[in-house]
Design a protein that fits this description.
CATH class: Mainly Beta
Order of helices and strands: EEEEEE
Radius of gyration: 24 Å
Distance between the termini: 34 Å
CATH architecture: Single Sheet
Length: 96
């Protein structure tokens, strides 16, 4: 999930913008979250504009829970090329 918000404003006769971004993602056993503030200055350059931005992360969290992984029995896995790999775990090494 990604949520962003920003608002342009005039300050000293220049166009600026401020915003926030919040991000949360769960992929397998990985959890990733971010909360950050953003700032942008719009500067005239030739016939157009140059936008200069800055993002400062306030809260960033990347978590991995290795306790949620359980390997049991025989497993066959296929890699990106389509090759098959077989993993055999001895019964005494299996978690229950």
């Amino acid at each position: 999930m990604l949520i962003t918000g920003d608002m342009p404003f005039l300050f000293h006769n220049r166009l600026h913008a401020a915003g926030v971004v919040a991000y949360y993602d769960v992929s397998g056993t990985f959890r990733n979250s971010l909360l950050a503030a953003q700032y942008c200055l719009r500067q005239p350059a030739g016939k157009g504009f140059l936008n200069i931005g800055l993002q400062a992360g306030g809260v960033y969290n990347l978590a991995f829970d290795p306790g949620s992984i359980s390997i049991t029995g025989d497993h066959t896995q296929q890699d990106m090329r389509g090759a098959q790999w077989k993993f055999i775990v001895p019964p005494e090494k299996c978690s229950t």
